[in-house]
Amino acid sequence: MMAVAKSVRQRVARLRDEINYHNYRYYVLDDPEITDAEYDRLLRELQELEEKYPELVTTDSPTQRVGATPLKEFAEVHHEVPMLSLENAFSDEEVFDFDRRARERLNVAEIEYAVEPKLDGLAISLLYKEGVLSRAATRGDGTTGEDVTQNVRTIDAIPLRLLGKGYPGILEVRGEVIMTKAGFEKLNQLQRQHGAKLFANPRNAAAGSLRQLDPRITATRPLSFFSYGNGLVEQGELPSRHHQIMQKMKSWGIPVNPESSVVKGVEGCLAYYRKMQQKRDSLPYDIDGIVYKVDRLDQQEKLGFVARAPRWALAHKFPAQEEMTKLLAIDVQVGRTGALTPVARLQPVHVGGVVVSNATLHNQDEIDRLDVRVGDTVIVRRAGDVIPQIVSVVLSRRKGNPPRYKLPDTCPVCGSPTARLSGEVVTYCTGGLYCPAQRKQAIKHFASRRAMDIEGLGDKLVEQLVDEKLVNDVADLYDLTVEQVQQLERMGPKSAHNLIAALEKSKSTTLARFLYALGIHDVGETTAQTLASHFGSLEKIMHADEETLMAVPDIGPVVAESIIRFFRQKHNRKVIRKLQQAGIHWPTEKAKPSGKLPLQGKTFVLTGTLSKMTRDEAKAALQALGAKVTGSVSKKTDYVVAGENPGSKADKAEALGVTILDEKDFQALLDEHA
Ligand code: IVH
């Protein structure tokens, strides 16, 4: 076999250095220098060279992260330096006590503390021999863990080889494997798509991902890593302060939490705690507290350990964001848009620093997914300002077999039937015009400019009218009197008069506007316009069945279903009748049952006098069929309609070869499309 050319070896070495450097920029400095695409190109070039020259492959090459053979089980790993846990503090007092005890033992006035977020992931030990990652292990019971090297190698943030120089020949890096909140959401979305089990939180997802026997699965999981210390060190030395050790680690390519800091005394610790508490929800990963560590190693040594925790470190926990409680009942709220939202009534419980007694359950799908039933013990989560959520049910605490929960068939506010449109997750009340819960919203929409265009009837006024019980549904608007209106706040006689006049004016409208104003789900302006021109009359739309509606261009099964449901409601029909009785009217339109109007795209010019209609009527008739009517003849004119005594326009048409229609031809054209 021919030896691999020196130039190829050099290129391979150079590519590895470059890739490792860019990993460092990305994961350690959080400051990438090149684009993802460029990074991928480097990696691909290296892959291709290694495929061509397999003898150049090394285990620490950045291409060798995913091993192909699943394990039968994890091997045991003995931790030469035990992996300890931390003492917890839940109040400022406990932090003061901790600091006081430490100062007394050390006989100093003030201690410098290294402070860092307490990451909510799982502890890992990474053993680097001569700078090469040789073994990774979980914490286990602190003395014996599991060998998860294959899986840890797939985590891009963890270098397979250390950068730079000066690291000890044997260096055990310790830290936390985490999953970002975004990565967790994405993973759960995928799990849902595949009908797989959802993870309760990022920590569980990270733990589950790291305990896969098949590293190819771990490789697909968005895991990351931050170091917070070291274990075994041989053949070399580390600096004498914790924060300096972390800086060194960073320089060797190990990610260290960028929020880490050094503070003076207990006051510094508490100030940092408050700052991070504010920042907690905006961080891309979950943290559950702050860890304070005596920074000087000589002081750490003096302080030593108690049982399984060091005397030189303390975990100051944030209020828990998840707690267990009992689901007492499920209530249903009807929103302004008619959407039914199930709300969990909970046994009050402290979560995230406040008392929580309600949580949203979103919709029927969510209830089904959680399989949550009244009486269940549930885990409630409240993070930051978000509405409390139910994360899961503690099935082992379920008593008996309580019935599954279904949203009601009738609206709890108005009694109209509820409906869930196909393809949607939301269940709606169908009493759109009648339901008190939707009243204000329905009236505001009805009055809006593109609907009935009732000038002066703004949101504030609608609220007052409803609150004062002057208006219950949109039809009541037309019963309002000047006297009633002028009694309202900020309403003079003049504005009251104006409003009544505007209401009067709005009675003369178009079918399309009226349809849109009704606020039928999924019927926007365009659909309303299409329906109006297709059917020509409200009666026809109200009585159309699904098939008839689906024959209209752009109307699919969902919209058809919405329309049918709306008009099937007795209450809605009643309001419409009241509106018509109040005098709302529109010009009757001839139905043109097709999407495209027959004369769309055609340009007409009218000249001379027609005997059966005025020029304006002729123009309106043409426009109704989609034609454009202009004032002068050009090459673009399609037809000139010439009545009695046509003017020069007819001559020009003749000269340009434009078709001239006399009144009889014109009438025939209109009849044809009537
Ligand atoms: S130091 C001897 N620092 O918390 C001290 N631990 O309750 C060893 N943890 O098992 C731990 N963030 O998994 C330390 N910044 C941090 C940490 C941290 C999270 C975890 C770690 C450990 C557990 C102890």
Main sheet record:
5 strands, mixed
Q: Going by CATH, what is the homologous superfamily of the largest domain?
A: DNA ligase/mRNA capping enzyme
Q: Provide the gyration radius in Å.
A: 37 Å
Instruction: Kindly estimate the percentage of residues that lie in beta strands according to DSSP.
Output: 15-25%
Placed side by side, the strands forming the largest sheet appear as: 2-13-10-3-9
Poorly predicted runs: none
Structure class: alpha+beta
Q: In CATH terms, what is the architecture of the largest domain?
A: 2-Layer Sandwich
What fold name stands as the CATH topology of the largest domain? D-amino Acid Aminotransferase, Chain A, domain 1
Q: Sum up the overall morphology in one term.
A: elongated
Care to count the β-strands? 24
Domains (count): 5
Q: Average the pLDDT over all residues and give the rounded result.
A: 91
Bound molecule kinds, no repeats = 2-(butylsulfanyl)adenosine
Number of helices: 24
**Which percent range fits the helix content?**
25-40%
- Span from first to last CA? 88 Å
Highest-level CATH class of the largest domain: Alpha Beta
Characterise the protein shown here.
- It is a single chain.
- The chain is 36% helix and 20% strand.
- It has 674 residues and is of the alpha+beta class.
- The protein has five domains: 6-64, Helix Hairpins (Orthogonal Bundle), CATH 1.10.287.610; 76-317, DNA ligase/mRNA capping enzyme (D-amino Acid Aminotransferase, Chain A, domain 1, 2-Layer Sandwich); 322-397, Nucleic acid-binding proteins (OB fold (Dihydrolipoamide Acetyltransferase, E2P), Beta Barrel); 408-593, DNA polymerase, domain 1; 603-673, Rossmann fold (3-Layer(aba) Sandwich), CATH 3.40.50.
- A five-stranded mixed beta sheet has the order 2-13-10-3-9.
- Helix 23 links the parallel strand 23 (639-642) and strand 24 (659-661).
- The longest helix has 23 residues, at 6-28.
- It is elongated.
- 2-(butylsulfanyl)adenosine (IVH) binds at residues 84-86, 116, 118-119, 123, 139, 176, 228-229, 291, 310, 313, 315.
